[in-house]
What does this fold into?
Amino acid sequence: EVQVVESGGGLVQPGGSLRLSCAASGFIFDDYWMHWVRQAPGKGPVWVSRINKDGSNTTYADSVKGRFTISRDNAKNKVYLQMDNLRGEDTAVYYCARAGSSSWYGWFGPWGQGTLVTVSS
Amino acid sequence: DIVMTQSPDSLAVSLGERATINCKSSQSLFYSSNNKNYLAWYQQKPGQPPKLLIYWASTRESGVPDRFSGSGSGTDFTLTISSLQAEDVAVYYCQQYFTSHTFGGGTKVEI
It folds into this structure.
C-alpha cells in the first residue's frame, strides 16, 4: 500500500523554526517527485514546494522562498521541509504528497494525513 | 500567476441526480505540443486530505468510480458526478499544473 506519513508539526513562535518529515512507503521512492502542500483552516490547499527525484532540483512558492528548504534522503525514503523565520500566515496543516505519476510532477497522487503547524506567540 | 475560479461555491443535489462543478482558469491550460490540458480534480472529505480524482482534465485515477468524469479544454473545465451518492458529499477542488501549481477555491457538494 502506498503511504506517506508526516511528522514534526507543532506550536512555534513567530520567527522560529520547525522541521517537518515525511516517510514514504509502498512505492519506489526515487522514481517520484515529492511535494509539500499546506491548507489553512477553512481554506483551500496551497502548493508550497517540490523536489525532483534525486534532490537536485527544488522549487518554492513565492510566499516561502528564502525561508523554507525542501530536501530528501532516498536511502531513508524521506522528504523534509525545513521552515525558518515562521510567520502567523504559515499556520496550516502541512501535507506531504507524492507526484501523481513517475513521468510527470504536475498533479498530486497519494497525500499524507497532514501535520498541523501553528505559529503564535 | 494562473488564477483558478470555481463555481458554484456550493450546491445541493438529490441522491441519484447529476452534480456539475465548473472551473475556469485565467489563461489556457492547453499545451498544443502534446494535446493535453494541465488540470486535475480532487475530492476532500472532512478531516481527510484531498484525494486525486482526475488528471489531464479527463483521465480518471485508478479506483475512482466512473460516475466521476472531467471535461473541457483551454480555460473552461467541468467535473461531473453523474449520479450522486451519499459518500460523494465533499469539497471538490480543481488544480492547474501548466505553470507551477494553483488550486481553485473549492465547491462544496451537499445532499
About this structure: The mean pLDDT of chain B is 97.
